[in-house]
Every structure is written in C-alpha cells, then in structure tokens.
Amino acid sequence: MSDPKDNIAPHDHATAANAPGEHTVPAGDAPDDRATTFQPVTGPQPEHYSGEVLLVSAYATLWVILIAWIALVWRKQSSLGARLTDLEREIDKAAAAKPQR
Amino acid sequence: MARPKSRSIDYAFYGLLAVTAALFVFEIFFVFLKTPIESRMGIVQKIFYFHVPSAYAMYVGATACFVGSLIYLVKPSDTSDALGRAGAEAAVTFGAIILTTGPLWGAKAWGTFWTWDPRLTTALLGVLIYVAYLVLRSFAGDGDGERRFAAALGIIGAANLPIIHFSVQKWGGQHPTVITGKGGGLQHPDMKIALAMGFLSFTLLAIALLWARTRVEITQSRLRRAEEDAIDLGLDTRTEA
Fold first, then answer.
1. Which partner from A37, B50, B72, B195 sits 20 to 30 angstroms from B97, CA to CA?
2. For residue range B26-64, what is the model confidence (pLDDT) as tens digits?
C-alpha cells in the first residue's frame, strides 16, 4: 500500500483532518498551457477518485453485504424449519403408534 | 411433546422487518434527495449517513455478543449461546460494512484507502476478534468447552469497544470527530435528521438481524433435541438438516 503522503489530491486537501503532505502543482497549469502542451507529472503521482463512483461503490457494498447475510440466514432458517416440522410430524406419528404395538 | 407456539412472535418479527424496511426507504430518499451536499468534500460525504450508523450497529451486535457470552458463562443455555453467536455475526457483518465504506470515503478525503490510524486499527482488531469467534464456532465443534472459549472471546471483544470509541480522543489520528469530542457537528438541520434516521434504521436492522439469527440457533437446538427424541423412538434421522 502506498504512503498516504504520496496520494493527497490537491482539491481535497482542505477537507482532510490533519491531512499529511502537500502535492506540488506543476508550473504553467493555466488552461492555455493545457491546450498547447502536455506536461509529465513530476514527483509522486496524485490519485484522483470520483466521489460519485466511491459513493455508489460504498452503497453497493453495503447492500451486497446485508442482502447476502439476510439471504443466508433466511435459507438456513427455512431448511432447518422444514426439517424440524418433518421430524416432529414423524415423532408424533411414531409416538401415537407406539401404545398400539 | 410440548412445542413452542410462536405465531404472535412471528408477527412481531415480520412487523419489525416491515418498519425497518420502510425506514430504510425513507432514509435513502432523504439522504440522496433532501440532505445537502457537503461543501468541501462533495457528494462522497453522504457515505457518512450509513457508515456511522453501521459502526453503531456493530456496537449493538458486539454488546449482544457480550451479554450472551456473560450469561452463558454464568448459566449455560442454548438461548444465551445463540445470542452470543448472533451478536458476533452481526458485529462481523456491520464491521465489514464500516471497513469497506470508510476506506471508500478515505480515498476521496485523505487520498488513500487505508492508513494505520488508531480508530481504523482498533476497529479492524475488533472485527478480527469476532471473526475469530465465528471461526472457532464453525470449525471447533459445538461442545460446552468450545462454547465457553467462544464466550470468553465475546467478552474480550466487548472490552475492545471503548478502546475503539475513545481512540480518536486518546491518540488523535486522522479520523474525523464531527459528532464526537470537539467536533463542530453537522451544520444543517437536514444533515442531523439524516444521521438520526440512519441511527434509528440501523438500530432496528441490527435488532431484526439479531432476532433472525437467534431464531436460527434456537431452531437448530430444537432440531437437535428432536433428533434425539427420534433416535429414542427408533426413527431414522439421517436426513441432512
């Protein structure tokens, strides 16, 4: 895993509580420069994450975990319940038949 | 043979599920359509309204595990063991949610998915204790010794809860303290309502899931006893449960 200091996005820096490190923005980052030149990153490469993608990923994970667990519990309860009902019916039948033997 | 009649309990359980589901629908609607976007972090801050209540739900599960474990050590019973196991499972489930949604927020706010911050580290440790509990119960058999050992783990896991909770105040770190300690709090009434709704819906969900999981364990115990009765009556009980 990379060092957090290497990955702070300049945009989000103000939001981080005690955010470590600074990212250096290359000189000449005006819109005109971007239209006429492509400049390589110098120093550690910043990572940019889309907030929308992260939010959707978080909610998807939340629901996948919850639904998977609920489905497992539901399936287990159904199979155990069915088995118990069958067995209790068999026991009742056998218990009723016993005195007649 | 006397068998428990559980019709009214079933209705209460399904009623709880229905209320929880309705609250979740309202919560999702409110968070996404009504609650304002945070000015500095943007839309990713909305993870907060589920992440923090999930952490709280993990505490609820861990507390249930602690109560079940403690009762089992004092007076062993199937019900207390079932509560302990259900609590551990809830703690792992909600712990998995906080350990995945938190880093997704951190990627945006901190620029990294994970850092060995005191809050993150102690939360991970807490979840691993409950994972150990479940691994023990799944693979080491279901005897009284295993149950007692797991109950001891359940108590150790609960001892970690205050350490998780106060780690930020005690050792600092990067984890936000918006609603605890010296945090400035939520600056809009809708943000407060969204968080309150999140706490309520996740508390009900945790209770519903604990209830459902405890029902499974109790049914399993009933099945075990029924199998013993069937053997006494000379019935074949080889069918897989």
1. B72
2. 999 999 998 898 888 888 889 999 999 999 999 999 999
Residue B177 exposed, middle or buried by CB count within 10 Å (0-12, 13-18, 19+): middle
Residue-wise pLDDT tens digits, B125-155: 999 999 999 999 988 877 888 999 999 999 9
**Chain B neighbors of A92, CB-CB under 8 A:** 1
A63 touching B, CB under 8 A? no
* pLDDT tens digits, A37-54: 777 777 766 667 788 889
SS3 sequence of B129-190: HHHHHHHHHHHCCCCHHHHHHHHHHHHHHHHHHHHHHHHHHHHCCCCCCCCCCCCCCCCCHH
What distance in Å separates residue A30's CA from the closest CA in chain B? 23
Q: How much is the average pLDDT of B6-30?
A: 87
CA pair distance A72, A70, nearest whole angstrom? 5
Within 8 A of B107 by CB-CB distance, chain A residues are 47, 49, 54
B-proximal residues of A, 5-24, CB under 8 Å: 7-9, 12, 14-20
CB contact under 8 A, A77 and B212: yes
Q: Which residues contact B181 (CB under 8 A, 6 or more apart)?
A: B168, B169
Contacts of A69 in chain B (CB under 8 A): 89, 93, 209
